[in-house]
Amino acid sequence: DGGITQSPKYLFRKEGQNVTLSCEQNLNHDAMYWYRQDPGQGLRLIYYSQIVNDFQKGDIAEGYSVSREKKESFPLTVTSAQKNPTAFYLCASSMEESNQPQHFGDGTRLSIL
Amino acid sequence: AQSVTQLGSHVSVSEGALVLLRCNYSSSVPPYLFWYVQYPNQGLQLLLKYTSAATLVKGINGFEAEFKKSETSFHLTKPSAHMSDAAEYFCAVTLYNNNDMRFGAGTRLTVKP
């Protein structure tokens, strides 16, 4: 079955440490997204990519970085510059057309030790 | 810019009762509207979508939503709640492209036995 795989499910970070969250999709979607979810705030867009080797900042990109070297993969790095990284991170993908839904992975919960 | 507002962060119903989750949108052009469901520690699953065809949209698990342009609403309903419906529900809107999907803050549905 096609879908989106996020790993790990749970991740712990020490202060000052960079961590990378993995996102892989086999839906053959061109577009991929990273969201941050905090209680009571819905989903906020961190970065998105419409095509390989190209990506754009979303609403809350500061302290995060991404790469898109392959169509199937869109890893997110949470850098030490992100002062409040504890959150639930969701990766999504979609076809390009705006009437198409986004498909989501099961998320990674990041906590600070 | 488009946006959605979900009225009520928490809704509680008895098993077998009507479920009504409210969503109002704001956009200057006809929107595409989506409802997603999220179970604890999981990603979002698409329930249904409105893409300018029929105004009454039927989705999975017995849910449906009606697009009302005059009221700028897209409320989600289900005639009879089941215990398995307990989850968080998100309304979302896009306009021209999927890169700018805006989510509501979410409504947590509790179903009492």
Plain-language structure description:
The complex is a heterodimer of chains A (113) and B (113). Helices cover 0% and strands 50% of the residues of chain A. Chain A has no helices and eleven strands. Chain A has strands at 4-7, 10-13, 19-25, 31-37, 43-51, 54-57, 64-66, 76-78, 87-94, 103-104, 108-112. In chain A, the strands form two sheets. In chain A, strands 2, 4, 5, 6, 9, 10 and 11 form a seven-stranded mixed β-sheet that branches. Chain A has a four-stranded antiparallel β-sheet with strand order 1-3-8-7, with no helix packed on it. In chain A, strand 5 (43-51) and strand 6 (54-57) form a beta hairpin. The N and C termini of chain A lie far apart (36 Å). With 113 residues, chain B is mainly β. In chain B, the strands form two sheets. In chain B, strands 2, 4, 5, 9, 10 and 11 form a six-stranded mixed β-sheet that branches. In chain B, a hairpin with a 5-residue loop joins strand 6 and strand 7. The N and C termini of chain B lie far apart (41 Å).
Mean pLDDT across all residues of chain A, rounded?
92
Q: What percent strand of chain B?
A: over 45%
Terminal residue distance of chain A: 36 Å
Major sheet of chain B, described briefly? 6 strands, mixed
As a percent range, the share of strand residues of chain A is: over 45%
Low-confidence stretches of chain B: none
